[in-house]
Specification:
3-stranded antiparallel β-sheet, 11 helices, 8-stranded mixed β-sheet, about 400 residues
Length: about 400
């Protein structure tokens, strides 16, 4: 998603762009079950996707808007609503494949962009001061002045060029469960905190939803090994009444929780975006959103460089992107870490403080609205695309 968004931001510019994709998404059909991999796209992400021309492709496929968000535990409770800050929605739940398809479809509209797919990179030859050469699995060799690494948390490009990371595991896994419920399409996403970890619900279109259940690795393994009917009974026993009656469990997946941050985002001729640069605790669903902000910022920096007659691969140019995004991403990662540590702590004084905090958040509107705007991607220094302003 992030790499394709970078390319779309450069569509129509004088730059020649190649997008290398190993696994193109399968075509979409409205009758298909929802994918397990979904994202809660923020208002800023929607504006980015609208401005580069990909949002219509998402709406034409499948999207579930939500306007409320609830967070609670034993004694504290707060609910956020977009009406309070005069927005029609807080965000949108979209299957990752739908976002990918819409972006790749948009790429085809630009004469300066070539999609090379499916293919894999066999060799990366990088030397400072020279174009990078990529050898593909079919023997083709590409030469590029600038290589954008949008190849995920285990980025081969990041490793090949020697950009290090700082990382640690949270010793928790997230179990993702696709369910059918008695409720019709909902407009709320919620998260409840219990001693074993958070329980979250993301609404999907129709009578469907996505559950994210945070547990120890061993417990997630046990739950995944159950028959689907057995897992349904575990959900019914563990989750709150807000979930509604679970008609059936349809599919599951899981992933470990990990924080990772690149020690630098750029080198001469190389730049990291998305998960290649940072992996964040998924509590508030901000991973893809800060990745799309990376894409918007990088596109803006590169286009401005071309307009000024500068070399887009020059380290001074790329540093502008790093300055725009690294500290912003670090702030979001730190906020999520503090949130995780506070809500996963069973020490009595901490429990009292967090319950008081949730109660106060419900009553102090300026603070509540600021939290809402932060979740919507509307706080901090935003790239032009995130404000709906074209850069080309």
């Amino acid at each position: 998603m992030v790499g394709a968004a970078v390319a779309c931001s450069l569509g129509g510019s004088s730059l020649r762009v190649a997008v290398i994709e190993n696994t193109p998404p399968q075509p979409f059909s409205p009758g298909q079950p929802h994918d397990l991999r979904v994202s809660a796209l923020s208002i800023a992400s929607k504006k980015i996707l609208e401005t580069v021309g990909a949002w219509q492709g998402i709406e034409d496929r499948r999207v579930c808007p939500f306007r409320r968000m609830r967070v609670w535990e034993t004694a504290g409770d707060t609910e956020f609503c977009s009406d309070d800050i005069n927005y029609p929605q807080l965000g949108y739940i979209v299957e990752n494949r739908v976002t990918q398809l819409a972006l790749l479809e948009r790429l085809a509209d630009f004469g300066n962009i070539t999609l090379i797919s499916p293919t894999t990179i066999k060799k990366i030859a990088y030397s400072i001061g020279k174009p990078t050469e990529l050898t593909l699995d079919d023997g083709r060799v590409l030469s590029a002045n600038l290589l954008v690494a949008a190849d995920g948390g285990q980025s081969r490009i990041r490793q090949a060029v020697g950009l290090g990371v700082t990382s640690w595991d949270y010793n928790q896994h997230a179990l993702v469960v696709y369910i059918e419920t008695e409720y019709g399409q909902q407009d709320i996403t919620w998260q409840r905190f219990v001693p074993s970890g958070p329980q979250a619900f993301l609404p999907l279109t129709g009578h469907y939803g996505s559950i994210v259940w945070y547990q120890s690795p061993d417990e997630v393994s046990r739950l995944k090994a159950l028959p689907l009917d057995g897992l349904k009974q575990e959900l019914v026993a563990a989750f709150p009444d807000a979930l509604g009656q679970v008609k059936q469990v349809l599919a599951t997946a899981s992933f470990p929780l990990k924080r990772q941050h690149a020690q630098a985002y750029v080198k001469p001729g190389v730049v990291l975006v998305g998960d290649a640069a940072h992996m964040i605790n998924p509590l508030a669903g901000q991973g893809v959103n800060i990745g799309l902000l990376d894409a918007a910022a990088l596109g803006e920096v590169l286009v401005d460089a071309v307009k000024q007659g500068l070399d887009p691969s020059d380290l001074k140019v790329l540093k502008q992107y790093e300055i725009m995004r690294r500290n912003e991403n670090l702030k979001m990662m730190t906020v999520m870490d503090v949130f995780y540590q506070v809500f996963s702590n069973e020490i009595l004084p901490v429990k009292i403080v967090r319950n008081l905090g949730l109660g106060l958040a419900e009553r102090i509107l300026p603070a509540k609205n600021k939290v809402m705007r932060m979740a919507m991607g509307l706080e901090g220094k935003l790239p032009n695309l995130a404000r709906g302003e074209p850069i080309i």
